[in-house]
Amino acid sequence: MRLLIAEDEPAMRTALTDLLEAEGYRTIAANDGAQALNRALREKPDLILLDVMMPKVDGFSVCKALRKAGANAPILMLTARGQITDRVAGLDAGADDYLPKPFSSAELLARVRALLRRRQRNEPVEKVAIGSATIDFTRMEAARGRRKLHLTPKEFAMLRLLAEARGAVVTREDFLDAAWGYGAFPTTRTVDNHIAKLRAKLETDAAHPQFIHTVPGKGYRLSAE
User: Fold this and answer.
1) What is the pTM of this model?
2) 198/33 Cα distance (integer angstroms)
3) Which of 22, 65, 74, 158 is an S-S bond match for 115, by CB 3.0 to 4.6 Å?
4) Which of 85, 81, 32 is nearest to 61 (CA)?
5) What is the DSSP letter of 136?
C-alpha cells in the first residue's frame, strides 16, 4: 500500500517516512498543500497523512478539495492544534480521523491500520493468485491448475486479510482479531502455526517462502500476483 505524507517540516516528514516504510508501507511525500493536492489526485494513494498547517494551501482546504474531486482515500489529519473546534473542522472537511501532536508512533500506526482495514472492508478482494495457485474467496475454493487445494475457513480468512493488505504487514494481533475474534483467546503462536500450514500448501518450498513473508517482530505480508 502507498501512503502520502503531506508534512512541511522536513524532520517530521523524514521520521514519518522511516516509521511507515519500516512497517512495510510504500510512501510518497509532499512538502506543501499544493503539492499534496496534486500528488494525491495524480497518484491516488491508499491513505493520506495530512498536516493542517502547511504553506500554500492548508490541510483543511486540501481535504475539502480532495473530497470535492471524488478522492476517497482515508485521510488522517495531523496537527499541533488539538482544540475541539479544530478537530470538528477537520472531520467536517472530510477527514476520517484526527491525531493531535505530539503523538506516539504506536498510536499513529494503530490508526493507520484501522483506517486501512476500514477501507479494505469496503473494497473486498474476491480472488488472488499466489504463484500457480488461485484462491477464490467468494466460492471458498483454491486450486493449483486442475488440482484442488484444501484450505480451512481460518486459512481462507487469513489469506484474505493478507491479500486485502496489498503488500502491507499484517500483525499477529490483526489475524487474531479478524480470523478468531477476541473472545477465543488464542495465542500469537496459533497464528504462526497456521501460517506454517498455509506455506506447506501454497509455497513450492515452505522453508524458503516466495509469497508469504515473515516480517520479524511484526507479522506477515503477502507478495502475490
Assistant:
1) 0.56
2) 44
3) 74
4) 32
5) E
E strands, 45-161, are 47-51, 75-79, 97-100, 127-130, 133-136, 141-144, 147-149
For residues 169-194, one letter each, b for 16 or more C-beta atoms within 10 angstroms of the residue's C-beta and e for the rest, the string is bbbbebbbeebbeeeeebeeebbeeb
CA pair distance 178, 44, nearest whole angstrom: 27
Q: What is the pLDDT along the chain (225 residues), one digit of tens a residue?
A: 899 999 999 999 999 999 999 988 999 999 999 999 999 999 999 999 999 889 999 989 999 999 888 888 899 998 876 567 777 777 778 888 888 888 899 989 988 988 887 776 556 678 899 988 999 988 889 999 889 999 998 899 899 889 888 788 888 888 887 777 645 566 778 899 999 999 999 998 999 999 999 999 889 999 865
What is the pairing mode between strands 26-30 and 170-171? unpaired
Contact 19, 109 (CB under 8 A): yes
